[in-house]
Hints:
Layout: H1 23-43, H2 52-74, H3 76-91, H4 97-122, H5 128-149, H6 152-158, E1 161-162, E2 165-166, H7 167-186
Antiparallel strand pairs: 1-2
Helix pairs in contact: 1-2, 1-7, 3-5, 4-5, 5-7
Amino acid sequence: MFHFINDGALIGSWSPQIGDPSVMGWLTVLLYFYAAYRCFRLARGRAVKLVDREATVWRLFALALAALGINKQLDLQTALTEIGRILAHAQGWYEERRTMQAGFIGLVGLLGVASGAGLILVTKNLPAATRAAIAGGVSLVAFIAVRAASFHHVDRLIGQRLFGMKFNWVLEIGSISMIIAAAYFRTLGPARRQVPVRR
């Protein structure tokens, strides 16, 4: 028998609250929502004509980025990690958690490679900007999945600083910025609509 509620927390040590109230935390949230807004505007097709398949890609980006922006402060992946920890204790395999975490990271890596290969095939006829956005999306999902695994050595690695910035900031904000830049450059593509000039 196990309990999710502990010492006032909802799940293990997690409870719904602002997960990262720092300046970088809120900047990342704003970037998520700005990226979602850029993708949504592009998907509407007013600035540039998109084929149905491409418009679907940008719509999915808009929805996923908005959800990730909300999750950034709710920190739902920590709740998932806590559920895994509680179940590991309850079922007696907590001592083997490192093996499970390493296997999870390996699986994420394999899925990332497979997804990348599949996306190259599916998107080979789409504009370069859209393919760049997909690459940014894949790297963002891989980062979030590995971060959620809470593997100690990975946490230490991404917690290191590069020119005063933590690796996890560079990886997450870099991936989001890649999607924003791709959405921007896609609106400047050769398929841009001619907007009639009002006199």
